Each structure stands twice: as structure tokens, then as C-alpha cells.
Amino acid sequence: MDFLNAIILLLNYLFVPALSYGSQLALGAIFVSLIYGILRFAYFTAGDLMSFGTMFTILFTWYFQSLGINLGFLPTALIAIPFGIIVTIFYVLLKDKLVFSYYRTKKSPPVMLAMVSIGTMFVTQAIVRIIIGPFDRRFFDGEKFIIRANEFKEMTGLNEGLAIKSTQVITLFVTIVVVSILFWFLNKTKTGKSMRAYSDNEDLALLSGIDPKKVVMTTWVIAAILATVGGALYGLDKSFKPFTYFNNMLPIFAAAIVGGIGNPFGAFLGGYVIAFSEILLTYAYKKFFVYLLPESLEPDGLLQLLSTDYKFAVSFSILVVVLLFRPSGIFKGKVL
Amino acid sequence: MRNNLDVIAAYSIMLGLIILVGFLQSWSMALSILCLCLISAVMTIGANIQWGYAGLINFGIMGYTALGGLAAVLVSAPPVEEAWKAGGLDMLLCAFIIFSMIFIIRLVLKKFSKSKNRNYIIAAVIVAGLILLRLISAPAIESIEAINPATTGFLGGMGLPILFSWIVGAFFAGGLAYVIGKIALGLRADYLAIATLLISEIVIAVIKHEDWLSRGVKNVIGLKRPVPFEIDLQGKEWFINLVQKFHQGSLNLISDNLERQQALKQLVIESSTVFVKLCFAGLFTAVVIVLLIVTQKALYSPWGRMMRAIRDNEEAANAMGKNVVKQHLLIFVLGSAIVGIAGAMMVTYDGLFTPGSYRPMRYTFLIWVMVIVGGSGNNFGAILGGFAVWFLWIEAAPIALFLINFFTSGLEETNALKVHLIDSIPYFRFLMMGVGLLLIMRYRPKGIIPEKIKRV
């Protein structure tokens, strides 16, 4: 019985939160990785693009709420996401036309493009803050929990409760759907294959008649979709605050690099690696061992490897270690 | 000569703008803008050495700035003797353990050839060291933080004059840069950017949460100053006389004696802040000029030519027998040390150390905007960038207010859009920075004052 309690404890405080946080990071990391693979620069606007998409999702959610449209026990934001995606797609394509295409045709070095993306980062951040303000906003409605902690306790008769928030399930479900469609697209369709070819060897791809404009456009569209979905899921699960989104750029980059930048599947796994290690290293294991060990061996301290203040630092340290020993990422292999 | 005229014109315009602020808003405001412009200029000199001379991207400026600030605290804050008694020795022991760990690992790396066993030994040393550190430091930290947590709760500093910290800050930042450079300089340009950005976040996390060292988010306030405090100045005979002399004309117009005394008192209070800021501005200007002379000399020395050669064609420079890795490391350390000076200067100027205020937007990306806008590779350009961008960053709000009022003048005061726009004025500075950066990169990619190569 104690063993089961210990397992449930870990599931509740470690596994479920890490899984949903990891999915949110993974969605971001995939698009950063795609942009790095195809457009060949580090996209510093990543976090702010996510907040841009989320902002429009929130605005549409409010609009639908004012019309009285809702999804019952599901959050209204789910209907708003597609509209948010459309606006974000327009925004990134406009940005590409006005800003990035110039440097691409000029064949500027990647560093230049990264600097330009810092410029767009400032602009995007300003737009978000001017439209919706810098404050914390919650836009979740509908049923909050699928299983409540005390319901679970009553159901199973265990001491530990397992609470599963509906946002966590939605996050996982949506991530699986989006990511499977994405990988199907990249691996099976003609456009997806041409994207991979372009990322592998640009000159060869151009020689074989692949239209670079189409490839670039598709990349931006995918980036906008992933950014909006990832951002909206994060906002549903926690809350929406532009500054947090900007900060999320850092673990997203860490995930993308850990997974081997330019490799979306690696980035997908990298998201989970980062999320799990952040939570595993900062969790206090005291209660877990109280369940498992006999009373005489009970630990005194919290058994916490690192204080939760260092949550971000964990992912960055992993990144540094990976860069030191395997600069091409944990999951290298074929690019894209 | 024509090019020099450009530089002079650009600087005169900048100075004119600051003086204009003095007339339109207040002299105190103009001088604080000037002081922060000077500090920004020091940061841009540091970043420019790395990017402009050697083509290294360093997105860790925030980390070095914070380390410089930490140096200011550690040098000038009075030591907390009880805390030293409670846990000082243990913390020193921890430092010793860390050094011996590094030493042992280096020894292992040297003595053993590359093998699995060597990796295991290193891992064992690290794990054992970490456990030992944890066991020793945890009670020590607890007892240090328990001592008078409302006012101290940390080890304190050395109680030396704060000016020393400018040098110590440079050493701190340079030391960190040495470690980071050893780790990350082999990476490709954009990896280096991301790696330094993330490492600087780690530095901030440590400074924020190690309360025994820096008081963390509780902030250190009331640091020493190299210049007099306003309140002391207001009581000084010579200062009051000076103010009286300066404002003789206007004071004489007031006939009533009591009123004249009141007016003088008001003037003394106002002038004291201006005077203090003038002192700061003088100190900072001295630093900027010294750095400018040194970096200019370096740029046109054989060493500077070598750096440019490495930047422009690494392989060719390597083939000529230049040690690219070593030079990169050197310039990385030098540039970061200069940023460290700026960090210490900033804390000196503010008189307080607030780890929570170090954010990448303000301390990394803004500095990069300054370097790019000003003109990378040219020190005069970088300094001008620091001035211009900081000026715009501060004056963005009034400018935005003016523009909004101008464009929405047809709307009523209570119009929802207008009210919303006026509420979000602080965020227009981001927009201005972003648009400014994009425009400069598109139409003047070399910056306002581009790099000039002197042919010898």
C-alpha cells in the first residue's frame, strides 16, 4: 500500500506536471528547430511569437464568451485557437515579407538574421503589451479537473490523491495530434519532403526544382501554428503573462539544442528532457521516502537536490553540459 | 577629415539633445540621463570589443553587469562580523573544496589518458564534492541568514571605498568570462549567443537566490558613494556660498530677507542633487575617456590589426600562425571585464543592488541594439549608440505621448482607444527600439558611424 502511495505521489507531483510542461516546451522547440533547419538562424522572437498567438486566442475567447458561445466542460479557448492561428500566420508572413526576405535574398550571415529577429522581438513584445497589457491573465473556463485529489482518495482508498487537471489532458491530447500531423506532413507529403531536402542541402534542393518561396512560407505557417497552439496551451494550464512567455524562450532554446538543433523530432524529445529534469532535480523527495523506507530510516531533510529557485538554471546547465560533450545534441542523426 | 566632421556633428547633436532636456524638463533629469548614457557607453565599449573587433557574439552582458554590481556590494558593504563568526569559516572551507575539486579534475585529466575509467573518476569526484559541499554549506548558510535577516542576513563586504569595486568588478566579470570562454568559445556564432544568454541567466539565478552572499531579492541598500551625499552637502558652508554666488542675480531681486532665505534654501536643495550628479558624470566621463583612449590605441595597434584579420578570415589568420583560440579567449575576457566595470559603476550610481532588476531585455538586448545602431567596430560609434539609444529609451514615453495626442487629437478625451493608448505609453519604447533597430540594419547596416579602417 505504501508503495502504491509513493508511486501516486510521484505521478501527482512529478510525472503529470512534467508531461504537460514538456509538451508545451516541445511545441515551441519544434518550431525553433524547424526555423533553424530551414531558414538557418536562431529565432529569438520565439517566446514573443507564442505570446502574440496566445493574445489573439484570448481576444477571440473573450469575443466568443461575450456572444455566449462555449464548449460546455471544455474551455472556450479551443474554438478560439484556430482564429488565433490565422492572425498569427498573417503576422509572421507579413514579417517575413517586410523584414526577413530582404536578408534571405541577400544571403546575409545567420548572425545578421538572428540580430534582425531581436528587432522583431522588440516589436512583437511592444505590440502584445500595447494591445493586451503586461498583466497576468487567466482565460480558462469549463471544467477544471478531470479527477480531483479527494475524489481519487475516496475511489481508491489511498492516502495520496491524484489530481489531473483537464488542461493537462487537453495539452497532451492536442500535442499528440499536432505533432503526429506534423511528422506525417514532413515525412509523407511532397511539400514536407521538399522542406527536408531544402534543410539538408539548399543548393541541391534548388537544383531539383524545389521552390524556395513555398518552402519558406510553409515553414512560417507551421511555426505560427505551433507557436499559437503551444502558447495557448501554456496559458490555459498556467496563465498568460507576456514576460513569462519571453522567459520561456530560454528553456525552449535549451530543448531545441539539447535535441539537436535543426532536428524537430529531437526537439520534441528535448522538450520532455528539459521539463523532466527541471522537475526531477527540484522536487523534494522526503515524502516519497517516508512511504518507502521503514520508520527508523526516515530522512531528516527535504531530500531536495536543488531549491526550486534554480528551476531554470537546471535546464541551462543541462544545455551547457550537452554543448560541451555533444554539441550536435543528444539525438543527432539525420537532420530533419 | 570629412568623416571626423560626421562624428563631431553626431556628438554635438546628442549633447544638444541632453541640454534641451535640461531646459525643457529639469537639469537633474538631464544629468541622470547623461550619467546612464555614460554607463551604457562603457557597456557598449565592452560589447563592441567583442563583436566589432573579433566578431564574437556575447549575449551574456546581463551576467557580467550583475557580477560587477555584486563586486560593488562585496567591496563596499560593511562586514557583518556575527555572520562571519556564525558561518564564515564554513563558507571559506566550501570555496576551498570547490578549488580543490577543480584542481583534482585537472590533475586527473592530465595524468590519465582518455578512457571510460577517467570519466568515472571525474564523475565520482564531482558527486563526492557536491555532497560534501552540501553538508558543510547548508547549516552555515542557515546560520548566516538567520542573523538579523531584516537588515543584514549576509556575510557583508569588506568595507572598502566603493571605487575599488570598479576594478574588482572587472576582475569578477573577466574571471567568469574566462570560464565561459573555455567552455563555449569553440561553438558556432549563434550557439555561442544562446549559450552565453543562458549562462548569464544562471549567474542571475545564483545571485538572486544565494542570500548569504548578496542578500538576494532582499536587495542591498545604502551603499557607499565616491561623491558626497546631498544631505551632507546642504549643510556645508562653502556649498551654500557657491549656490548664493551662482544665483546672485535672481536672489537680489527678492527684497524680503526671510523670503530670500527660503528661496536660497530651495535652491540649495535643488543644486545639491545637480551637484552630486555632476560629480558622478565627471567620474564616469573620466572612465569613458580612459577606456576610449586605450581601446582606440589597441584598435590601431598590430594587435588590433590581427584581431580584425581573425574576424574577417579566421582560417587565413590561423594559417599565418596566429593563435585564434587564444586571441578569442583574450578578447572575450577583456570585453567582459569592461562590462563588469560598467556593472559596478551602475550600482555605485544607484547606491543599491537589486538582483531582481537584472533582465535580459534591459541589460543584454538593449546593449546590443546600442552597439548595432551606433556602429560596430568603431568605438566612437558604439559610444554614440549608447548615448542615442539610452536617450530614446528614457525619452520614448514623452515622445509617444506627444505622438498619440497628435494623431488622436480628433478624438475625445474619454475615447476608449485613446485612453488605452495613453495607458500603454511605457511599452512604446519597445516598439521604437525594435523599429529603430530594423531600420538601421536594413538601410545602414554598419551603424550611424561605420567602422573606418586606417590604412598605414
Entry summary:
With 336 residues, chain A is mainly α. Helix content of chain A is 72%, strand content 1%.
Question: Could you explain how this protein is built, in words?
Answer:
The complex is a heterodimer of chains A (336) and B (456). Chain A starts with a helix and ends in an 11-residue tail after the last helix. The radius of gyration of chain A is 21 Å and the shape is globular. Chain A has 13 helices and two strands. Helix content of chain A is 72%, strand content 1%. With 336 residues, chain A is an all-alpha fold. Chain B has 456 residues and is an all-alpha fold. In chain B, helix 1 packs antiparallel against helix 2, helix 4 runs antiparallel to helix 5 and helix 16 packs across helix 17. Chain B is globular. The model of chain B has no long low-confidence stretch (mean pLDDT 88). Chain B has two domains: 366 residues, no CATH class; 75 residues. Chain B is built from 19 helices and no strands. Chains A and B meet through helix 4, helix 10 and helix 13 of A and helix 7, helix 16 and helix 19 of B.
Coarse morphology of chain A:
globular
Give Rg of chain B in angstroms. 26 Å
- Characterize the largest beta sheet of chain B: strand count, sense, and whether it forms a barrel: none
C-alpha geometry of chain B: globular
Calculate the mean pLDDT score of chain A and round it: 87
Instruction: Give the strand line-up of the largest sheet of chain A.
Output: 1-2
CATH class of chain A: Mainly Alpha
N-to-C order of helices and strands of chain B: HHHHHHHHHHHHHHHHHHH
Low-confidence stretches of chain A: none
* Strand percentage of chain A: under 5%
**Tally of distinct domains of chain A:** 1
